[in-house]
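Handoff note, outgoing to incoming analyst
You'll be picking up this chain. Sequence as last confirmed:
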Amino acid sequence: FSMKILWARKLRYSFALLMSSIKLSNLRNFLSFNNFLSVERFLSLILVKSKMILKDTDTIVAIATPIGESGIGIVRISGKDSFPIARKIFQPPHGKKINWDSSFRIYYGWIIDPETKELVDEVLLTLMRAPRSYTREDVVEINCHGGPLPLRKTLQLTLRLGARLAEAGEFTKRAFLNGRIDLVQAESVLE
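Most recent structure output, in case you need it:
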């Protein structure tokens, strides 16, 4: 419940300019915390009607699968620098060319530490160009082996190259704020 309140507060501040045209007394009554669902619907309606797309400018990264639970683990990167970061750490076999302008392509290769040239893991790299991704931003998914070592090393490389560790639910938050999913869908993902 506290995450919902935080989202509502952030959205309320983000839409301050749009809401300035509404009478202040009516707005206070409408946006009271006693009527939380109405607050969410109101803010969601403003987002859709105004066709505003809110974007955070930083690139986020997280391990998207439980560590050690399966044979494959996914490191997901989202944001404007996701492709440049992937380009620095991914090496295709035998000098094959990667079409970095393409979307929905999967490439086989290796994750390599750019400083030490150490081989980290054998991976599949998936490229998804904005706006046709979950967050409506450029997204790269790195399918590593599911053990903790390759996942953590890949995550550390992306962090070292400028990505920020994603907060819990931040990919879904970006999908909602960028208009990819509605509030009901965002809530169902968070539960």
